[in-house]
Amino acid sequence: MFDRYYYIGLRKVRAMSAVNISHQALNRMPCYLQYLCREREMGRQYITATAIAEAMRLNEVQVRKDIASVSSRPGKPMVGFFLPDLIADIQRFLGEENVWDAVLVGAGSMGRALMSYTGFAAYGLNIVCAFDIKPQKEPVCGRMVYPMGEMEHLCRRLHVRMGILTTPASAAQSACDQMVRSGIIAIWNFAPTFVRVPEGILVQNELLASSAAVLLRQMQEDEQELSR
Hints:
By secondary structure, this protein is an alpha/beta fold.
């Protein structure tokens, strides 16, 4: 058994496993965790890989392989996995005990929406503050919004290495450059454009318009299939 480090979004994850898990499988783990936690809240105690695959519309063989790579004990025939244990195994695999501080740059509509989202805490991500060209005297969504000029000082003083970029496209590259100068090494980019970074800086792009375009295309194909 040995340590492996991966990235999910902008989170660095330590996976304690001797299994050669793919990046695609690793990206599915938070989805499994979210679904399983919801089932536990509904009172479910056991669950099968078949039930997970059907609920999440995934290939059953794929789900079995994913679960086997993180589960500390096999499921019971005809019963499945004990839900609390499976949840704990996935949380342990993802390194949920680690908390990663991040700053947000661009406190507009998208930035405020992300700061308002409480689900990040469950995955070990903590947005400590935000920066914007229009700083605020009062907290916004529970976080202070500081002037852009204070970014480097605060990031280095707080030892923050992660940043979330939510500026307009026109300001994204300059804001990204400032994040890098401030010691940020991982950037979660929600700006509607790509940014250039030096070698060694991790960028995860979230192109929401592209995702919407894919979804709309799939809807169109489904409607065409039904009309035949």
